[in-house]
Amino acid sequence: MNHRILTSIGLVSALALLAPLPAAAQSNTNAPAATNVAAAAALPRTPDGKPDLQGVWDFKTITPMERPRELGTKEFFTADEAAAWERDENRRQNRDLIDPRAGGLNYVPGGVVPYNEFWYERGDKAVGTRRTSLIIDPPDGRFPPLTAEGQKRSEARTIYDRNNQIGRPLANSWEDRPLQERCIMGLNAGPPMTPGAYNNNFQLFQTPEQVVIHTEMVHDARIVPMDGRPFLNIPQWKGESRGHWEGDTLVIETKNYKRETSLRGSSASTHLIERFTRVDADTLNYQFTVTDPTMWSKSWTAVVPMKRSDEPMYEYACHEGNHALSGVLAGARADEKKAAEEAAKKGTN
């Protein structure tokens, strides 16, 4: 989506072109990109000697979070395979193309079908390492299996019609509605930040005492203390974050979420470790590890290479979910009434 237009007019959605990484980054693909001594010395630095990570960073890419099942154990594309994947995936996601088999616009799960292609800015290239997924651990490039509790919670948030064919989120009260729908959490804003359909940008500000991560999606600013203070253990929408340096890598730990995060399937028990490593003047390697024992059977890790952007940030205004909440709940009550009437009618026959 063209987020420059979308953000300026304040629309909301239901829900990335990255330059190839340098050879140093490609040589260590299961960890934050490493830099040699000469490259590290050339990095821009702040007065206190730390790598200067400040600026606007773009994390859009067409590489999926999970490896498509049809790719099996294939961890990397060849150059030709990556080009073919980009061509086919861009066509599949293009909302302006008509699929005669579906009788209308192509459908992408999780996408907002009524928008045409003009509104999207998801990116059209795979990441420079040509990985087949952003997830690097587990090795199969997919989310770990859900725990029994996670499966139960996932199912509890969905109700089905009588034929068990159509699922939709619960609507017993406003508390059932997703935080993204209510404009409390950005769809890709995190933490952790993950590529989405548009607004794949954030701006980083840095001092010795604090780091600020300002996301374009829902324009939240996450203030991260760097002074070693303890966690207060007070639940917050974006959790509590604390940062420190490990060599030239900025490490941010976040926990104590109030509810689920913007990450699919997460819960308030999420524990997040983010690592920001500047590879060169234009590349920021972003790696994050998610641990949520109530949802997933093990921790998992993803890597998202980010590209420096010269474009400014824009405010993303969001209100539709809250504005329409009365209609969502009223519609659910109407469905329940209809179902009860049909059941009563059957009972008298």
Topology:
Layout: H1 3-9, H2 23-26, H3 37-42, E1 55-58, H4 79-93, E2 98-99, E3 104-105, E4 135-137, H5 148-156, E5 158-160, E6 167-169, E7 201-206, E8 210-215, E9 221-225, E10 240-246, E11 249-255, E12 271-280, E13 283-291, E14 300-309, H6 320-323, H7 325-348
Describe the model.
The protein is an alpha+beta fold and 349 residues long. The protein has one domain (3-318). It has 7 helices and 14 strands. It has helices spanning 3-9, 23-26, 37-42, 79-93, 148-156, 320-323, 325-348, and strands at 55-58, 98-99, 104-105, 135-137, 158-160, 167-169, 201-206, 210-215, 221-225, 240-246, 249-255, 271-280, 283-291, 300-309. The strands form 3 sheets. Strands 1, 4, 7, 8, 9, 10, 11, 12, 13 and 14 form a 10-stranded antiparallel beta sheet that branches. It has a two-stranded antiparallel sheet with strand order 2-3.
Order of helices and strands: HHHEHEEEHEEEEEEEEEEHH
| Beta-strand percentage range | 15-25%
Average of pLDDT: 81
Helix content: 10-25%
Low-confidence blocks of residues: 1-35, 103-112, 160-166
What's the structural domain tally? 1
DSSP strand tally: 14
**Largest sheet: number of strands, sense, barrel closure:** 10 strands, antiparallel
Distance between the termini: 53 Å
Radius of gyration from CA coordinates: 22 Å
Shape: globular
Please, how many helices?
7
Helix and strand content put the structural class at alpha+beta
